[in-house]
Amino acid sequence: MKIFDNYPQSTEFKQNELKTLEYIKNFGLIKSPFEELAYSIEENFSIYTGTDLAKFPFQLHIDFLMEVEEEIHRIIIGANIQGETDINSYFLAMCDKEEKQLIRKFHFDFALPGTGESQSVPTFHLQYGGKSTQSIIEKNIGDEKLDHWLSLPRLNFTPMNLALLLDMVFCEFSTDDTRKVYEHPNWRSLIIKNEKFLYENYIKNLYNHISSQKYTKSYLLRDFYYGK
Predict the structure, then answer these.
(1) Sheet bearing 102-110, strands edge to edge
(2) Do residues 91 and 166 lie in contact, with contact meaning Cβ atoms separated by under 8 Å?
């Protein structure tokens, strides 16, 4: 038994992301306060509708303005899903008020053991910083403040997808506008579906390990996180 057992396969995972784009597009609540976000979601839904998701990567770059601690900042979120287990990565970034520099950037990655990392990492992990995407570079947004040369630490975290990432953004950067979204029953329906989709087997795997005879000082939960 491994922590990634019964994790959704790549095509199923990408199909779920397309359903999320469609649901939010039809949802309507984000259109007024977050017009850029709503437009980008509709645009990406159009791009991937009819695409053979089993053959092509799923890549998103969405940026929009929102209030963060009483100041307006540009928020950038992205996704990159390629192959079955080659790349499964999401990120959340925030620009300074002038939109010239990144001041925060977090990656949420799924990395199976032996996928090219210089040292072992938790299968599901959070990383601060990381290199800028091509879309960020093309917008002339600098990342000097992040010291992106430093790739460690990679911290154990729960699995991530688009719906859960957006929910995190709305909840953490909470305002009257975001509360109208994340407290709405329709939004909560989307989130519970995605929590079940990603967390059900993940949590079962954790429980099964910690309840098994294999759970000893020689095979800690920490070891299990690393996919051992």
Answers:
(1) 58-68, 71-82, 87-95, 102-110, 124-128, 154-156
(2) no
Give the helix ranges, DSSP H, for the chain: 10-27, 35-48, 134-138, 162-172, 176-182, 185-211, 221-225
Contact 3/123 with Cβ under 8 angstroms?
yes
pLDDT confidence bin for 152, thresholds 50/70/90: confident
The ranges assigned to domains in the chain are: 10-198
Give the predicted TM-score (pTM) of the model: 0.94
Report the alpha-carbon distance of residue 195 to residue 52 in Å, rounded. 25
Whether the per-residue pLDDT at 117 is higher than 70: the answer is: no
Torsion of CA 146, 148, 168, 39, to 10 degrees: 90
The answer, yes or no, to whether residue 126 has pLDDT greater than 90, is yes
